[in-house]
C-alpha cells in the first residue's frame, strides 16, 4: 500500500515564475500530493552550472520556494526542500560521475544547446555533468516516477542506464529504476506575441510572457493584446490558429472547462470576449497565489522553518541510499 514516489525539481530563477512554468510544471505537481509520495526540490546546485550572483541566488531560491508554496504545495502532504540543504546530492553525483562514460555524457543534446548559449569559455564542466547530478537527485530517493517534459526524457534514460550499471557492477538493488512520467503536450504554453515559439524567460518579448508576480493588471493587458489570427471563429486548431489555440489551452487550464466546452461557449463570437474573459479568469486565479506567496516572502522565519522541515524529511532517505552506495563502492 506504499504510494509510488515521484520527484521533480525546478531551478531558482531571478524574478517570478511565468505562466509556462506554472502550467507546464508546478501545477502538474499538485495532484501527486494526494496519490504519490511526492518529493519536490528547488535545485540550486543546478543553478550554479551557469554564473550566479550569490545574494541573487539566495533570494531566487527563497522566491522559488515561496511560489511553490503559494501555488499549493503543502509541506504536510509532500516533501519540499532546497537541494543544497541535502549534501548527499553532490556526494552521490560524484560516484555517478565515476561510472558515466565521457562519450555517454557527450551525447546529451540539452548540453549542446546550453553550452552554445554560454560560449566555449563560459561553459563549465558542471554544465556538462548537469544530467549526472540530475540522476543523483532522482536515484537518491528511490524514485518511481519523474514528471518531466519531453525535453528531459533523455536525462531520465541516462538515469536508468546509470542505475542499472551501478546495480549490476556492485550487486543488488542499490537503486530503484525510475520511469519518466511525460507531462502532456497540452501544457506547453506559447509566447503571447509570438505563438510559434514557447513562452520562455530567455526567449520571449516583454509582452509575450506572463509573470505570475506582476501586477495582475499588467498581465490582463497582455492577454487582451495577445496575437491571434484574423479569423472569426473560436476553434482549437494549433496549426492554423496557434495564438488562439494557446489562449484556449490557458483558458481550459485556469477554468477547468474542456476546450470543447469553451468553443461552445464562444460560438458565434469574435476573439475579443474570449481574451477579456481570459484576462479576468487569470486575475481571479492569480490573486490568491500572489497573496500566499507574499505571505511566505514577508515571513522569512516561517519560510526557513518550512524548508528546514523539508530538508529534515528528505535527508534520512538520501542518507540511507548514499550509505549503501558508499559501502558498495568500497568507502
Ligand atoms: P524557461 O523556458 O523560461 O527558461 P525553464 O527552462 O527554467 O523555463 O523551465 C522550468 C520548468 O517550466 C520546466 O519544467 C519546463 O518544462 C517548464 N516550462 C518552461 N516553459 C514552459 C512553457 N512555455 N510551457 C510549458 N512548460 C514550460
Ligand atoms: Na529553458
From TrEMBL:
InterPro entries associated with the record: aa-tRNA-synth_I_CS, aa-tRNA-synth_Ic, Rossmann-like_a/b/a_fold, Trp-tRNA-ligase, Trp-tRNA-ligase_bac-type, Trp-tRNA_synthetase
Entry EC number(s): 6.1.1.2
Enzyme class, broadest EC rank: ligase
GO biological process: tryptophanyl-tRNA aminoacylation
Superkingdom in the source lineage: Bacteria
Gene Ontology CC annotations of this record: cytosol
Predominant location: cytoplasm
Binding-site residues, L-tryptophan: 137
Keyword annotations from UniProtKB, A to Z: Aminoacyl-tRNA synthetase, ATP-binding, Cytoplasm, Ligase, Nucleotide-binding, Protein biosynthesis
Locations listed in the record: Cytoplasm
GO molecular function: ATP binding; tryptophan-tRNA ligase activity
Binding, ATP: 11-13, 20-21, 149-151, 189, 198-202
Catalytic activity field: tRNA(Trp) + L-tryptophan + ATP = L-tryptophyl-tRNA(Trp) + AMP + diphosphate + H(+)
Motif residue range(s): 'KMSKS' region: 198-202
Stored HAMAP family: Trp_tRNA_synth_B
Family designation: Belongs to the class-I aminoacyl-tRNA synthetase family.
Subunit structure: Homodimer.
Function: Catalyzes the attachment of tryptophan to tRNA(Trp).
Matches recorded under PANTHER family: TRYPTOPHAN--TRNA LIGASE, MITOCHONDRIAL
Name by which UniProt lists this protein: Tryptophan--tRNA ligase
Amino acid at each position: 500500500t506504499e504510494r509510488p514516489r515521484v520527484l521533480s525539481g525546478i531551478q531558482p530563477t531571478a524574478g517570478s515564475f511565468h505562466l509556462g512554468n506554472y502550467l507546464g510544471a508546478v501545477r502538474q505537481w499538485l495532484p501527486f500530493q494526494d496519490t504519490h509520495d511526492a518529493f519536490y526540490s528547488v535545485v540550486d546546485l543546478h543553478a550554479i552550472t551557469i554564473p550566479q550572483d550569490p545574494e541573487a541566488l539566495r533570494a531566487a531560491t527563497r522566491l522559488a520556494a515561496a511560489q511553490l508554496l503559494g501555488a499549493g504545495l503543502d509541506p504536510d502532504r509532500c516533501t519540499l526542500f532546497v537541494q543544497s540543504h541535502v549534501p548527499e546530492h553532490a556526494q552521490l553525483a560524484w560516484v555517478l560521475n565515476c561510472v558515466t562514460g565521457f562519450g555517454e555524457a557527450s551525447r546529451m543534446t540539452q548540453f549542446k544547446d546550453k553550452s552554445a548559449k554560454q560560449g566555449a569559455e563560459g561553459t563549465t564542466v558542471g554544465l556538462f555533468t548537469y544530467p549526472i547530478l540530475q540522476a543523483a537527485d532522482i536515484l537518491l530517493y528511490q524514485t518511481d516516477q519523474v514528471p518531466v517534459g519531453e525535453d528531459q526524457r533523455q536525462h531520465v534514460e541516462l538515469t536508468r542506464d546509470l542505475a542499472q550499471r551501478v546495480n549490476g557492477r556492485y550487486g543488488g538493488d542499490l537503486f530503484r529504476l525510475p520511469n519518466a512520467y511525460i507531462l502532456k503536450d497540452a501544457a506547453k504554453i506559447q509566447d503571447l506575441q509570438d505563438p510559434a515559439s514557447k513562452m520562455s524567460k530567455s526567449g520571449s518579448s516583454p509582452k509575450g510572457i506572463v509573470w505570475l508576480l506582476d501586477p495582475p493588471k499588467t498581465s490582463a493587458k497582455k492577454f487582451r493584446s495577445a496575437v491571434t489570427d484574423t479569423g472569426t471563429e473560436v476553434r482549437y486548431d494549433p496549426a492554423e490558429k496557434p495564438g488562439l489555440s494557446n489562449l484556449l489551452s490557458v483558458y481550459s487550464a485556469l477554468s477547468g472547462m474542456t476546450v470543447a466546452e469553451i468553443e461552445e461557449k464562444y460560438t458565434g463570437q469574435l476573439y475579443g470576449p474570449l481574451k477579456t474573459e481570459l484576462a479576468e479568469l487569470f486575475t481571479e486565479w492569480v490573486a490568491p497565489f500572489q497573496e500566499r506567496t507574499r505571505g511566505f516572502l514577508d515571513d522569512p522565519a516561517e519560510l526557513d522553518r518550512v524548508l528546514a522541515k523539508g530538508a529534515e524529511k528528505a535527508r534520512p532517505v538520501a542518507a540511507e541510499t548514499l550509505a549503501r552506495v558508499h559501502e558498495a563502492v568500497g568507502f
